[in-house]
Amino acid sequence: MTKDPLIIYFHDEKKLAQKDDSEFFNNISRIGKETSIQVTNIEQFTALMNYLDPATDVYVLVHIMGDLKSKNPDKDYHGEAWGLELSKKYEHCNYYFVTTSNNKRPEIIDGRKVYVLNEFYRQAVKNKSVDFPSQTIREINKQQPANSAAGDSNDKTDVDFVILTALYYDEMEEVKSAFNITEQHRFNFGKNVGYYFVFEGNRIVATSQAQMGMVESAILSMECIYKFNPRYLIMPGVCAGEKKTEFGDIIIPNKIHLYQAGKISDDGFEKEVVDVKIDEMILERIKPVEKDIVKEIFAKIKRSKTKKEEFEKFLYKQFSTRVDPMACSTMVVDKKGFFSDNIKTVDRKMVALEMESYGVARSAEKFDNRTKAILIKCVMDKSSKKNDKAKKFAAYVSANFVKKAIEKKIFD
């Protein structure tokens, strides 16, 4: 028995209800170790109530709808009626009516608001605007029924920003550090791991690619746009800079070139201009504050004894910002003279090179008109003599630039 708060997810999908009850009764043995359990019929719920200590705080999420494509939704899904029956029989429990669909749902049942499941997580776990025990999204989310898979158009959540990095190590680690993200913010969507949090009143999802490259960035960007419908896709991270840049310089591209595009024949390689432009409005809003932001980050590092010692070798000069074209590559470049010989020849104003930006920007441009992409990269090398010594430093500067840009309401 347990007196710890217990979350019961009551989902009466017919297929689930036909399962052998042995799995449910096996789950009972884990109560006290687990704080959430799924039941699929009233008999299971009654058995659970008989097992629990009467003093246990019980929070019941009653799933009122199932698959809206069902030919007999009223026959196959009885969540609403059964939830009302349970609430009258076990009045000491806290009941919440939820659904994975925003379509055809009632607003109120028996005086209780009906929540879309993802919205409920946000309000209960993050904003605390719903009276609910502090459990992680990951823990509650595991009780979702199989038919509410990520990517279902009926399970779509609107957020303000998706912060996307090419790598977890260094890049996402610095994002997590900047925004104080912990594992309690973690959740799964599709085959990806994300972190949901609220910062300065903005709903934000942070996630990182499983592999480097613009194919991976395009796939993940499209999934995030479809799933979360963000106002902005923001990609911080590291890049290689031209010879005139310094470690720590922030690169905000106004245009991204796919510099390897073209035709190769017996006569040689004929370059083709393939690029994607970044929304001019957001660039114009960044320009008045970009230099102030890097000064603030520089000063922040200087004030921190730990960071100052860690990044001391890169603080010999105040880093700056550049709003200029950037190149996107399918390969890592570590060759002296390559940038000037192969990249500057596409656009003489090109200042940086990396491997993901084109996929992010093109996905936002192609998918819809709502989501805008903005890239905020930081120079970690000069595309030759690579050693990654400045990688963590560059990731730190980039992540903190994003944080300060949000604080200054640049994206509002």
UniProtKB/TrEMBL annotation:
Gene Ontology, cellular component aspect: cytosol
PANTHER family, sorted: 5'-METHYLTHIOADENOSINE/S-ADENOSYLHOMOCYSTEINE NUCLEOSIDASE (PTHR46832), 5'-METHYLTHIOADENOSINE_S-ADENOSYLHOMOCYSTEINE NUCLEOSIDASE (PTHR46832:SF1)
Segments crossing the lipid bilayer: none
Gene Ontology biological process terms from the UniProt entry: L-methionine salvage from S-adenosylmethionine; nucleoside metabolic process
Entry GO MF terms: adenosylhomocysteine nucleosidase activity; methylthioadenosine nucleosidase activity
Protein name: Nucleoside phosphorylase
Highest rank taxon of the organism: Bacteria
